[in-house]
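Late entry, written up from scratch paper. The run itself happened at the end of the previous shift, but nothing got recorded in the book at the time, so transcribing now.
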Amino acid sequence: MKRLFVIFSLAIASLWADDPEQTLGMKNGRFWNNLSVPPSITTKTGSGEETNKVVFLVGLIEGWKLESLTKDTIPAKEALAWRGGPESTISDLAATVTAVYKDTENQPLPIGWVVMGAFAVQRGDTTRDLVFMALRKHLSKMMDGQPRPAAELDPTDVIIQSHKR
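Output as recorded:
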């Protein structure tokens, strides 16, 4: 009976195991790289996978816009972090995020963090190498098991401070 209880307990615990497609409760590069549709579905503009990524980004950006419209104030650093480059398109952003996640060490980074980093690169504020190295370091610090206030999870300062030298 004890053995059955132990096996049952282990089985239940495995159901609540960490989701490898999430980091700090947010979707990450593993999720991004797995966005796809059946091969029989394509669009006039490209593959279904490409379309899913663009649609995901539109939802993310529209969600941020909605939040900014419903808040009394938005910190200037947030407004800057979510501003893309003047000539960039949503397809450009999707291509940049995909390129960032091709590097395996970037896959644990939350998608929102990568998008803000990609915007900084598009604006010319930083380089891809600098911003994503800084974000990996920030994530490593956040994952060290030490209790921290939620405000410390915010990667905005890390992105802004990763400017070109």
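Strands lie at 22-23, 26-27, 42-43, 46-47.
(Scratch paper discarded after transcription.)
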